[in-house]
Write a structure and sequence with these properties.
Organism: Dryoscopus gambensis
Number of helices: 3
Number of strands: 0
Structural class: mainly alpha
Protein name: PKHG4 protein
Shape: rod-shaped
Largest sheet: none
Distance between the termini: 76 Å
InterPro entries: Rho_GEF_signaling-related (IPR052231)
Strand content: under 5%
Length: 132
């Protein structure tokens, strides 16, 4: 039984290493591209025309960002089986997994909030443009 547990642990470690490559890529993109692009959308322009242009650019970014979020979430799902194991040796991997998961969740939440804010701002400006 102990041997089987060790084999399972080694299999999980090998699987984690594969999944970790995906996490590193997603994490790197979030830090180097994603967060910077989200910050760029904090100050939306005052004219409807400029706002529509910003919305178009955000939609293009959103497609790419959503794909990275999806890839990260799929990788997290693959590692859900780690919760069933209580080996001391895999604790450090769980900590890494939690860190990646927290970063991904935070970014995806910010992406959703920005998407909503841009959409609502455009709707508001379109409404005011019709009123004029």
């Amino acid at each position: 039984m102990l041997s089987n547990k060790r084999i399972q642990e080694l299999e999980l470690v090998m699987e984690f290493e594969k999944v970790e490559e995906c996490f590193k890529e997603v994490s790197s993109w979030i830090e180097n591209v994603g967060r910077k692009r989200l910050k760029e959308t904090t100050n939306l322009d005052d004219s409807l025309e400029m706002l529509l242009q910003a919305q178009k650019q955000f939609k293009e970014f959103d497609l790419v960002a959503s794909e990275y979020c999806k890839r990260g979430q799929e990788a997290l799902k693959k590692m859900n089986q780690w919760e069933d194991f209580s080996f001391v040796d895999v604790h450090s991997y769980r900590v890494k997994l939690q860190t990646y998961g927290d970063q991904l969740e935070e970014f995806c939440t910010q992406l959703d909030e920005t998407r909503h804010r841009v959409c609502e701002t455009v709707r508001l400006y379109e409404f005011f443009d019709k009123v004029r």
